[in-house]
Design goal:
The longest helix is centred in the middle third of the chain and has 19 residues, at 191-209. Helix 1 (17-28) runs antiparallel to helix 4 (191-209) and helix 7 (283-296) crosses helix 9. 46% of the residues are buried. This protein has two domains: 17-82 and 189-360, Aminopeptidase (3-Layer(aba) Sandwich); 84-174, Elongation Factor Tu (Ef-tu), domain 3. It has helices at residues 17-28, 37-47, 158-163, 191-209, 231-240, 261-264, 283-296, 312-317, 344-360; strands at residues 53-56, 62-66, 73-79, 84-90, 95-101, 113-118, 121-128, 150-152, 171-174, 179-181, 185-188, 217-223, 244-252, 274-277, 301-304, 325-332, 340-343. An eight-stranded mixed sheet has the order 1-2-12-3-13-16-14-15, sandwiched between helices. Strands 4-5-8-7-6-9 form a six-stranded antiparallel β-barrel. The protein is globular, with a radius of gyration of 22 Å. With 372 residues, the protein is an alpha+beta fold.
Length: 372
């Protein structure tokens, strides 16, 4: 296990074979918005050896705590939920129409294999789509929309579908699984943002294994319901009442085709964590992150957001009379698809940056821009 210290010229891996095995299991396990329980149990089981206490809230946000007796509280946070679908309408012929649960992309749905979650267990299905031969050569083809994508579970009637345990409101997730691509990228669905949950758990592991004693309470938070409005973070922020919050989420790698860098910024997988500039990002806490990165030799990139970050940073920042909050993002390709890609070195370096930042925070530290 690599100690975290000032970086050498050569990248040193942080993720171990054991933790990578957990990462794969965690990515493959479905945790759709509002139904995160199974994934949260996996995450807490992995985290428990590295913390002093754990708890969950009424909606399923999971928290591990180091030094729970401390009055000064620091949060490191990610969100656990993934995009998914809800069953919305079942035809008399046994076909199933859906609505979004979070920001699911209708354009990638046709021909995907899915799991429909029921009280009787998983029911397999596919997003059907008419064959190219039947769509009319030379005619204007109809594109996938929420009005025409549908699921086929092999049933021939509505009654047969319902006997399988499927009903309006049943949640649906994609079937795709974790893989390593060219020994460089981790690939899978729900890297947004279970990669974040994995990374904050790794920070807890490193603190424990490196025998670091923090002078404050550390709350490792894996929040629910980010994909539908930052709701889990909003709830848990009011419960914990932290003094400082460092959030990690994903952001867009903008190096692939069809992305405008003028509007989306210039970020790349493999070039390090991304620090954000936005109204919700507290300026002095952000400077602490940058200073920690520079001191440890961790490469980093910068991103600006004109209004909100669109992440749980906003929920923490504007809670409890204002909590100094900052965002560390993991560059990711193909967000909200089944082949989300993150660079192995970026994962290591986000873990390192959060770790080094925590070692820089002092209890009672005043982050206000100015004092009278």
């Amino acid at each position: 296990m690599a100690k975290i210290s000032k970086a050498t010229a050569k990248h040193t891996a942080v993720v171990t074979p054991k933790s990578l095995k957990f990462f794969e299991q965690y990515i493959n396990n479905p945790s759709p918005t509002g139904f995160e329980w199974a994934g949260q149990r996996l995450w807490l089981d992995y985290l428990k050896p590295y913390v002093d206490d754990t708890f969950t809230d009424n909606y399923g946000t999971a928290v591990g705590v180091i030094n729970p007796e401390a009055t000064y509280k620091v949060v490191i946070e990610a969100h656990a939920d993934e995009i998914s679908w809800f069953v919305n309408y079942i035809t008399n012929e046994g076909l199933i129409y859906v609505i979004r649960n979070g920001g699911s992309d209708h354009q990638i749905a046709p021909s995907k294999r899915v799991d429909i979650h029921t009280d009787k267990g998983i029911v397999k299905a596919v997003f059907g789509w008419p064959a190219i031969h039947t769509r009319g050569a030379g005619e204007k083809e109809e594109a996938p929309t929420l009005k025409n994508i549908f699921l086929d579970c092999g049933a021939t009637s509505k009654d047969e579908v319902e006997k399988l345990g499927i009903h309006v409101g049943s949640v649906i997730t994609y079937e795709d699984e974790f893989m390593v691509l060219n020994d460089r990228y981790y690939v899978g669905r729900a890297m947004d943002n279970r990669a974040g949950g994995f990374m904050i758990a790794e920070v807890a592991r490193l603190l424990k294994e490196n025998k670091k004693k923090l002078p404050f309470g550390l709350y490792i938070v894996n929040a629910v319901q980010e994909e539908i409005g930052l709701r889990g973070a909003e709830m848990i922020a009011h419960r914990i009442k932290p003094n400082v919050a460092i959030i990690t989420d994903v952001t867009h790698d903008t190096q692939t085709p069809m992305i405008n860098k003028i509007t989306q910024g210039d970020m790349a997988c493999g070039k390090g964590p991304v620090v954000s500039y936005a109204p919700a990002v507290q300026i002095n806490l952000n400077k602490l992150l940058i200073k920690a990165a520079e001191k440890a030799g961790i490469p980093f990139q910068r991103q600006a957001s004109s209004r909100s970050t669109g992440t749980d940073t906003d929920a923490f920042a504007y809670s409890n009379d204002g909590v100094p909050s900052a965002l560390i993002s993991l560059p990711l390709r193909y967000m909200h698809t089944t082949v989300e890609m993150v660079h192995k070195e970026d994962v290591d370096n986000v873990i390192r940056l959060i770790y080094e930042a925590l070692l820089s925070i002092k209890p009672g530290q005043d982050f206000r821009p100015f004092n009278k």
